[in-house]
Amino acid sequence: MLDREELVHEAARRSAAIMVAKVEGLRAALRDAPAAALALRSGAAFVQRAPEPARLELAYLFTDYVVTCPDFEVLKAGDGQPASPFVQAVVLSYLRAADGTPRAHEWVSLRELPDGQFYHRAFQGYTGDMLAARLGNDLEAFRRGAAPLADVALTAFGDAAYAFRVFPNLYMAVIYWLGDEDFPPRASVLFDKAAVHYLSLDGLAVVGSQLTGKILRGALASG
Description:
- It is a single chain.
- This protein is an alpha+beta fold.
- The protein folds into two domains: about 5-95, no CATH class; about 105-220, no CATH class.
- Helices cover about 40% and strands about 20% of the residues.
- It contains eight helices and nine strands.
- The protein has a five-stranded antiparallel sheet. Strands 1-2-3-4 form a four-stranded antiparallel sheet, covered by helices on one side.
- A hairpin with a 2-residue loop joins strand 7 and strand 8 (about 170-175).
- The longest helix is centred in the last third of the chain and has 21 residues, at about 200-220.
- It starts with 9 loop residues before the first helix and ends with a helix.
């Protein structure tokens, strides 16, 4: 189970804590919206089998969850147990923000999103810079960590790159460049340009931190 202790930087953990504190407010706001409309805007599946209450089903960072309606508890799909407070916060934030905007099919940095310039330097430090510092020129390690999670490989970018479907309508990419005698290796975590229609900048930074952590754990565990 993913939780805020698995985030890779204190700044992302602080953002996660802020999100967790807002969970009850998110639940209250979501109760005003029909579950079928939330499903349409977020890409979640709307399931209603009488006499059971309606529910939403969606994946977040490669794990399946069920969201009960109308109380908006987030449960693990496998055993029906409550998700961690952190996962509850991220999933409910996604449902609350989702407005159905189509995927843009354009990759941008956090800096290129509205107000993202204020977050970009710190975000790059605990995502792309951390990947490059830990993995160096070991491109195969990056592939080991990223490929099993990826939606698709991106052959037109860097020395290796992958796109990830982190929510039904929210896509991210990670691009890796090898270093040489003049330049060190580097990596960048990017977003589909429509990402701000599905999470706030704080939320996107948190998800970027988690994705980085999952790639690193896979890369280093397999090395």
